[in-house]
Design goal:
Length: about 170
């Protein structure tokens, strides 16, 4: 269990750094677009496309930290009203369903990126970005989320909370 947790700790830090970079680049690109249109009457022609890529990357890369720090949507009204044994069962069932769905999304988005790479598919915009580049983040993000669900399921089976979740949630009470 500690192997998965320590691996996810390191990957989470990298994912957060990459997500921060994506948000910064998106903000920079949007400001360049606004100033270019306002001051020079010209567009970069790429801001919409690239901002979408950066937004998607930031969102997917932050799924793991959200999951591991107890910030994913949960039905607390139900979970907090049932006995601990049933809470554990619900957490395990939820973790298995989440891991399964994330694994399916990992595989299908990998196939999407692979197909784009195989056919040399490019975006329809002026820059014609090879779609494998922005699509590659999809299986990475969903793959990391799959690992996070596996970790949470194992922790529930061992009747332990994630250290990050306990630390963060108690700090907010």
């Amino acid at each position: 269990m500690t192997v998965i947790s320590s691996l996810l700790d390191r990957l989470e830090r990298v994912a957060i750094a990459a997500a921060i970079l994506s948000v910064l680049l998106m903000g920079l690109l949007m400001n360049v677009e606004v100033f270019g249109r306002t001051l020079f009457g010209r567009s970069t022609q790429i801001s919409d496309e690239f901002a979408g890529y950066f937004f998607t990357a930031a969102t997917l890369l932050c799924l793991v930290p959200a999951m591991r720090h107890g910030r994913f949507l949960r039905v607390e009204a139900v979970i907090n009203r049932v006995p601990p044994a049933i809470q554990t069962v619900l957490k395990v069932i939820g973790g298995i369903i989440g891991a399964g769905m994330s694994a399916v999304l990992t595989w299908t988005t990998f196939e999407l990126a692979w197909t784009s790479w195989s056919y040399g598919t490019v975006s329809l915009q002026a820059v014609q970005v090879p779609l494998v580049i922005p699509q590659a983040i999809l299986p990475i993000g969903f793959g990391l989320l799959t690992l996070a669900f596996v970790e949470q399921t194992a922790l529930a089976l061992l009747h332990r909370e994630s250290a990050q979740e306990t630390e963060i949630l108690h700090g907010l009470d």
